[in-house]
Amino acid sequence: MPAPRLALNPAAVLHAALLRASSAGCRLPPRISFNSLLAAAASSADTRTRALALPALALAHASGRVSLDSYALCSALRSAPSAAGTLHALAAKSGWLGSVFVSCALAASYGGSGRCLDARSLFDESPARNGVFGNAVLAAYVGAAEWAPVLRFARRFSELRLQVDWYTMTAVARACGEVANADLGVQAHGHAVRRLGGVEVDVFLVSAFVDMYAKCGLISQAERVFRLAQQETGGRGDVVLWTAMLNAYARHGQCKEVIRQYDLMLASGVYPDELAMLAVLSACQHAGEVVKGLNYFESMHADYGLVPTPEHYGCVVNMLCRAGEVTKAWEIATKDGCDHAIGVSTWGALLSACQVRLNVEVGRMAAQKAIELDPTNVGIYIELSNLYARACLWDDIDQLREVMKERGLEKDVGCTWVELGS
């Protein structure tokens, strides 16, 4: 007679997974509650361990080993936001939907999945509401870039007696900037000062106001907010605040000021992050500051340990292409196998620059890189054909046309629209 099959113990499964995912020498206590294990699995950096949290909760609930509570539901929602609908139904069935903690977690999960309307419906139907719950709904609207609903919902905080905090006003400032409503933005700034006191203390809120004023065209006001925040921090500030000011200058085409501000940031002892580096590289690209741009790019990894992204490479390659340094652009784009981090648009820009400079060798290699990433991009073939035509390489053009025919690629036929009665 076969041995009876033992039922899985969900706590043991989670415990074993956490031990495997933990670093050598890191031990979990031998006796620990299921909710603690579930919370640890949900916040684990290991994706496979996080994926075990929801099945473990389902198994524990079905077997009756543990009773369902708000802690378990919140952990499961954090590990699997896409299962918000299922866990919403489970919370309603088990009577835990009345918990403001569960409702907040559900709203955050809906927001993370782009379901801002579901988050708002949950808020409207919930008997328990607070400012954190309202902020979760605001975050859902912000994540979906629904800026008008952000402003409408934020106006109801006073009516619903919800506490306005730093996050609330940060969302409002962002929305005012996105809709470019300077009058409303000034009112929001004043409201934040009255309700929260020292706005400059919160780096994310003051950065949002700097960004808002810049998007509304009030660069001088953005500078004023930035200087006040600098005074509060003794002139040092935070990289988030500095980056907001860099982007403000960049948005108004003040590339030289971006570079000057970046140098001031380094002199203040503030290390850049990827966004600050992208802002200054973009400024160097548009200002034609090739030497400075290359120095900044080299310092990115050497001095600050940052890994360049396709956007960083794109700025540097475009900067060199504008200066006619196509060979140097190719060398940087393929240095140490970095070409895998570069997108089609950057290879296309290098190909276009090669056409201007009549560099067939680099242009052909750039086109090959672009075609490897997007074999059906007709524009790359056309650019390469134009390069061959400028170099009078008619045989290569014929071969390229044959390749396009074999792959079923055709150039879109040009057309003209004529509007009668205009």
Automatic annotation (TrEMBL):
Alphabetical UniProt keywords: Repeat, Transit peptide
GO BP, one annotated term: RNA modification
Annotated PPR repeat ranges: 238-272
Keyword Repeat on entry: yes
Record InterPro entries: E_motif (IPR046848), PPR_At4g14850-like_plant (IPR046960), PPR_rpt (IPR002885), TPR-like_helical_dom_sf (IPR011990)
Keyword presence, Transit peptide: yes
Pfam family, one: PPR
GO molecular function, one term: RNA binding
PANTHER family xrefs: PENTATRICOPEPTIDE REPEAT-CONTAINING PROTEIN
Stated name of the protein: Pentatricopeptide repeat-containing protein
Natural source organism: Zea mays
